[in-house]
């Protein structure tokens, strides 16, 4: 399924006049404040977020899964779905694959398809949290941290295989997320588990191509509920430092204990030049993987404020691998991803509005009230007309959800793929 760009333009035409009015109003008021609108629009257009292959089907929970029908059941179909998202939003120009769920059969055909939809291959993700069919060893008690050498070796080899697959597609990063840990006190020796993980990661790192990054993701709990080997950003940073300069920490918004100051974490990692990737989602309680910005939009804005500061002031930190990491049970996954993409762009645009020079001055004056006013003034600005303009100029939809619905895309997918589709995923 491929969206015809003319159909997007047709849908846009009905809303062009009201968009123009809203845009003119925003552009005028922001210009009066000295904001360079065109630079912001260009930055929004350049900001591309990878869609994970596992978010395109209804995710479900361990209690059940309710299909949305017409979900993709092959890698080709997953890439086509990302193509739909990208055509509408113009901000989903990459896909992140999970191996072995997404092993390509025909590399050239997959690359051609992605190319035709203007989609790049972002970080590849390894999977040592599930046992695979025909695997000799089990990861029930851990993978890279396991006390048994043969199990560690199998997990190391899997990561090397993932690098080789990613290399053939043009990926430039390997993301390692480990479920390793323990469920009960005494089950594991913390030091041995950490040391094994460090040694295993180093063995993988030695096989990372020179123009690649190794992204090390952390998470405090789940699926293990007593301890997790790579539990927090400090542990991830220690491991990245041990591995070397191509290794970085990856921050997933859902992987923190309640009330953690994530904006401070990303800020310090950038200062140290060690923030490599970012997984967007939102949560109320834990790793809920909810739609980005649906629960804590102000926190997301504060995080973006630090990311923007880092992108402008920390040349020691590389470009980040941006990805949405969410899975859903009750929404059409494509609609949900459109909402997430919009929330990301919105937080980014608002962070770009923060007057950094004024903020610095207010900080030096210890004018706490003014500091807060500067941030909240940016946060309270309606930037949606800027986002719409950024999309429109690239051929995207003025209102992606509305266009998705008026083009009846889900029903076309159901007609094409049928009802009984099963997407590979969590
Ligand atoms: C784990 O909760 C996680 O967020 C990691 O990023 C994984 O790669 C992803 O989910 C899906 O496996
Ligand atoms: Mn993640
Ligand atoms: Mn997660």
From TrEMBL:
An annotated Gene Ontology molecular function: metal ion binding
Gene3D superfamilies the record matches: Divalent-metal-dependent TIM barrel enzymes
Key words of the record: Isomerase, Manganese, Metal-binding
Protein name: Sugar isomerase
């Amino acid at each position: 399924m491929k969206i015809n760009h003319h159909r997007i333009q047709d849908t846009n035409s009905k809303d062009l006049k009201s968009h123009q009015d809203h845009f003119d109003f925003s552009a005028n008021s922001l210009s009066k404040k000295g904001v360079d609108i065109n630079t912001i629009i260009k930055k929004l257009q350049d900001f591309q977020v990878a869609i994970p292959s596992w978010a395109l089907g209804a995710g479900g929970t361990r209690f059940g899964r309710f299909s949305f029908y017409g979900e993709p059941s092959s890698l080709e179909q997953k890439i086509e779905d990302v193509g739909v998202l990208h055509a509408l939003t113009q901000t989903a120009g990459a896909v992140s694959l999970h191996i072995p769920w997404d092993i390509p059969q025909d590399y050239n055909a997959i690359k051609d398809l992605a190319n035709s939809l203007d989609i790049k291959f972002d970080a590849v993700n390894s999977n040592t949290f599930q046992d695979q069919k025909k695997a000799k060893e089990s990861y029930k008690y851990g993978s890279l941290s396991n006390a048994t050498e043969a199990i560690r070796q199998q997990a190391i080899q899997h990561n090397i295989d993932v690098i080789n697959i990613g290399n053939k597609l043009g990926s430039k990063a390997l993301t390692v997320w480990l479920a390793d840990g323990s469920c009960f006190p005494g089950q594991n020796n913390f030091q041995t588990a950490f040391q094994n993980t460090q040694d295993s990661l180093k063995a993988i790192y030695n096989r990372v191509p020179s123009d690649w990054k190794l992204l090390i993701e952390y998470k405090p709990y789940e699926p293990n509920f007593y301890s997790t080997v790579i539990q927090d950003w400090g542990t991830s940073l220690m491991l990245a430092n041990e591995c070397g300069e191509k290794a970085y920490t990856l921050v997933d918004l859902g992987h923190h204990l309640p009330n953690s100051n994530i904006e401070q974490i990303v800020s310090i990692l950038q200062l140290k030049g060690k923030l490599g990737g970012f997984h967007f989602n939102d949560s109320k309680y834990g790793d809920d993987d909810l739609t980005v910005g649906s629960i804590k939009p102000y926190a997301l804005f504060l995080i973006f404020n630090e990311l923007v500061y880092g992108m402008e002031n920390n040349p020691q930190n590389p470009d980040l691998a941006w990805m949405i990491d969410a899975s859903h049970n009750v929404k059409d996954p494509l609609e949900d991803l459109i909402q997430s993409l919009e929330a990301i762009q919105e937080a980014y645009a608002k962070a770009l509005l923060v007057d950094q020079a004024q903020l610095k001055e207010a900080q030096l004056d210890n004018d706490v009230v003014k500091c807060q006013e500067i941030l909240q003034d940016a946060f309270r600005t309606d930037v949606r007309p800027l986002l719409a303009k950024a999309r429109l100029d690239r051929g995207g939809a003025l209102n992606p959800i509305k266009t998705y619905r008026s083009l009846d895309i889900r029903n076309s997918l159901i007609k094409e793929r049928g009802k009984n589709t099963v997407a590979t995923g969590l």
